Amino acid sequence: MNSRTTNANLMDHPLPVRVKLAAAWTSFMFLYVYVDVLNFYKPGVVDGILNGFIWKFDISSMLLTIFLVSVSIPAVMVLLSVTLPAQVSRVTNLVVASLLIPYSLFNAAGTSVEWIPFYAISIGIEVLILGFILRSAWTWARATGASGAQTARESRLEVRQ
Q1: Is 127 exposed, middle or buried (0-12, 13-18, 19+ CB in 10 A)?
Q2: Which H, E and C letters describe the chain, residue by residue?
Q3: Which of 144, 147, 132, 145 is nearest to 15 (CA)?
Q4: pLDDT single digits (tens) 94-114
Q5: How many CA atoms lie within 13 A of 105 on its CB side?
Q6: What pLDDT, on a 0 to 100 scale, did the predictor assign at position 9?
């Protein structure tokens, strides 16, 4: 059997929307954290932290609590995307992803020209992932009538297999 035959026999089953959303939030979360870690390598960042400043803010328990809430959002969205009832999950994903787009864009505030590529790539990918989340939640298939009930049953069976 050659590779062409092997690849032609692969079956590609569609993923449930919940799985797509959870995967997207997981990707967003990893990117979000890694961008923050890479930011430590910028000259002066660690010195500022050691002197009690992050960007233009004094390091305080309130600031770190805000940061904790901020980085917890994608982690919680992984869980909520797969556990909330479909309609609530859809609305939650639409609202949270919409709110995180301007929040992500804010991360470039005050950057110098030298760091524009870093922020353009990181924020660009974050916004693309959030756009994928918005599109997936917005186009989430709706069950209608008897055929909708059948579709819902088939979806549950597909997930179990």
Answers
A1: middle
A2: CCHHHHHHCCCCCCCCHHHHHHHHHHHHHHHHHHHHHHHCCCCCHHHHHHCCEECCEECCHHHHHHHHHHHHHHHHHHHHHHHCCHHHHHHHHHHHHHHHHHHHHHCCCCCCHHHHHHHHHHHHHHHHHHHHHHHHHHCCCCCCHHHHHHHHHHHHHHHHC
A3: 132
A4: 999 999 999 999 888 878 899
A5: 9
A6: 79
Query: What sign has the CA pseudo-torsion 29, 31, 37, 39?
Result: negative
User: Which pair of tokens denotes residue 22?
Assistant: 């959870």
Residues 58 and 52: beta-carbon distance below 8 Å = yes
Structure tokens at 91: 């609305």
Residue 76 burial class via C-beta count within 10 angstroms: exposed 0-12, middle 13-18, buried 19 and up:
middle
Q: How far is the C-alpha of 143 from the C-alpha of 109, rounded, in Å?
A: 43
Indicate the length of the chain as a whole number.
161
Confidence class for position 150, pLDDT limits 50, 70, 90: very low
